[in-house]
Structure formats: structure tokens, C-alpha cells
Amino acid sequence: MYNDIVNFIHKLYRTEEFVPLHAPLFIGNEKKYLDECIDTTFVSSVGKFVDRFEEEIAAYTGAKKAVVCVSGTNALHMAMLLADIKREDEVLTQALTFIATCNAISYIGACPVFIDVDKDTLGLSPKAIEQWLEKNAELKNGTCYNKNSGRRVRACIPMHTFGHPVKIDELVDICKDWHIELIEDAAESIGSFYKGQHTGTFGKVGVISFNGNKTITTGGGGILLFQDEELGRLAKHLTTQAKVPHRWAFVHDHIGYNYRMPNINAALGCAQLENLERYVEDKRETADIYKKFFATISDVTFFTEPKNCRSNYWLNVIIMKDKKAQQDFLEYTNDNGVMTRPVWELMPRLKMFERCETDGLVNTEWLADRIVNIPSSVRLER
Ligand SMILES: *Cc1c(COP(=O)(O)O)cnc(C)c1O
């Protein structure tokens, strides 16, 4: 049976060679824009592509302002700073995420608290958040505290796993009730919409990544999304060394960061963005082909987008029968020219986070034993 799956994937990607999980694709103006950077010498921190990329991402996502960063990870770090998260604050998030989410929390000196995910979104569960808060938290003078640890519960960071939107409107309401800041790790979900609104535009700040393995890439890079323009302007200031604008004087008014995306990366991003809708359409078509195929395979379920969503299907997911099947399948496919991957090792299983509080993580652990990511590159012109 695993042999049928391997053959199917080779045929899908029209190759007998190794099929990677997600390869970037350059079929537009990438070279033209990069040439322009080199010809004009604007390769670094000054140049028109940075502003253009920010404006175009803001227009595409519906954010009031977008601010580019060198990576999604430092965009997340900046988001934590802007949400005024402090040392020893607690941040509610998923155990089922890429480590960047928790690294950013750690840069601040804050502590993640790991809450369960929903099986139908693979992302943070509003019900589980509500249950944890009702059991463990209290509001004192408008601030949410963990009754057990005594720490302030400052923020909640859901992640739109593999591009599938979480039930973000419910999380918005819960965070409002409990006076908790909402930051969206939308690193994987460019092109994914929840009830017609782009992921990353529901919370105080949203973060998208343009790393090489994401749906579109700038080589390396990330962007912050804001509905509050004032906060967006502050982000721009802090990510550019907090330099007070002046023709020659170097004066700074904050501890700043050199987090600004260089112009060459933004140039790549502008070219990639021109093809984003084609990429997402292609990825959705691939998902549909997978869905039909896996309907014929017993004991394997293809994961489909949650209700009320348009997902970008960044990485396609199948759910295996049990952990044994998962391990066998990973071994067979990786031995036979098809790259597959389990979900990231759950955060509380890593030594840096093993002492962090969790809510038991029932669905999270069930999913971690069964999820396999299968090849998901855009198939256009390959
Ligand atoms: C890719 C990713 C990031 C950001 O990664 P960078 O490589 O720093 O751009 C953050 N969170 C999640 C969940 C990711 O998948």
C-alpha cells in the first residue's frame, strides 16, 4: 500500500527523482527585480522594493500597515515587544508549533503555557483555552493572573498550523473577555483566509514568514501586520535601530533592532507576490487531488481545510492510524524518494520547555503520533 502512495506522489510531481516537501518556485519577475537592485546598487537597507512590498502585503491581507523584518522569528520577537510582554509573564500557546513561536516568547524572558489544539484545525482550541482560564486564571484590576503561579497571563499566540486557520474569531472574544493580548503566528498562512478575512489581521499583531520553505519566499524574511497604524509606525522605528530621522545626525531614542529586511529580499518578495494567487490555487488543486486519492486508501485520512476557511494548504497533512503506522510510513517514503515528515517534536518534550505548564494536551499528543506531512510544492511549470 505504501508503494502505491509513493508511486502516486512521483506521478503527481512528474518525476522519478527525490520529491522534496516544499521547494521554492521562481517563474516571474524575480531575476528582473534582483538585477534592478544590483544595477542601481540598492541591495541593502535603502530601496524602493521594501516600501513596495510592505504596501502590497498590506493591500493583499487587508492590514492597515505591514512592516518587513529579516525573518519571521525576529518579527515574532518584535510582536512580543510591541504587545508589551514582560519577563515572567505567561503566554498561552500551542505545543504543536515550530520552535520559533516559543523562542520569541523566550527572548522576552516570558513563559509559554501549552494549551491543547482542536483536531479539526490542528491549531489552538478556543474551548481548551476557555477551560484552562476558567480553572486557573482570575482577573484582578483588569489584569489576568494565573492563580497557581501568581504570574500575569499577558498574551495568547495561536498558530495557523500548516496554513489552516484556527477558530480565530472565538479566540478574539476570549482574549477580550480576559484582557489578554492576541498575537497571531501566521508564519505559514499567507493566502489563508478565515471567513473572508486574511489570517494575521485579527489580533494586535500578526506575523508572516517568507523563509525558503514557505508558500512564497524572500530568501529569508518576515512581516508584521497591524490594524493599528500607530503601532505599525512604532514597529518600523524599532526595527530600524530607532533612529530619529535626520539628514546626517545619528540620534536614537529607543533600544532599537536591526531587523529590517534588505531591499534585495524585498525585491524577491515583490516578484513572488505577483504569483501568490496562482500558487495558492495550484496548492489547493494539489490538495484536492490528494483528497480524492487518499479516499481510496484505508487507514489514512487526508486533512482538509476547516469550515469557513480558504486555506493555502502550505504543507499537506495525512493522519495515520497510529504511531506505528506513522513511523513505518516515514521510513518507507524517505527510503523511496519521497520526503515526508512528522510534526515538530512537541514543545514541552524539548528540554528548554519541559517544565512549562500544560493543560494535558490530549488532542495534541494524539495528533503528534499520527500526523505526516507529504510533498506540497507548487506544481506549476515543473
Ligand atoms: C516558519 C515559521 C516561523 C518563522 O520562521 P523564520 O524561518 O524565522 O521566518 C515562525 N513560526 C512558525 C510556526 C513557522 O512555521
Question: How do the strands and helices of this protein lay out in sequence?
Answer:
Layout: H1 2-12, H2 30-40, H3 48-61, E1 65-69, H4 72-82, E2 90-94, H5 99-108, E3 111-115, H6 126-136, E4 137-140, E5 143-146, E6 153-157, H7 168-177, E7 181-185, E8 193-194, E9 197-198, E10 205-209, E11 222-226, H8 229-239, H9 263-274, H10 276-294, E12 300-302, E13 309-310, E14 316-320, H11 323-335, E15 341-342, H12 362-368, E16 371-374
Parallel strand pairs: 2-3, 2-6, 6-7, 7-10
Antiparallel strand pairs: 1-11, 4-5, 8-9, 8-13, 10-11, 12-14, 14-16, 15-16
Helix pairs in contact: 2-9, 3-9, 4-5
The chain binds pyridoxal-5'-phosphate.
What this model shows, in words?
It contains twelve helices and 16 strands. It has 382 residues and is α/β, with parallel strands linked by helices. It has two domains: 2-25 and 276-374, Alpha-Beta Complex (Aspartate Aminotransferase, domain 1), CATH 3.90.1150; 30-273, Type I PLP-dependent aspartate aminotransferase-like (Major domain) (Aspartate Aminotransferase, domain 2, 3-Layer(aba) Sandwich). The strands form four sheets. Strands 1-11-10-7-6-2-3 form a seven-stranded mixed beta sheet, with helices on both faces. The protein has a four-stranded antiparallel beta sheet with strand order 12-14-16-15. The longest helix is centred in the last third of the chain and has 19 residues, at 276-294. The two termini are 26 Å apart.
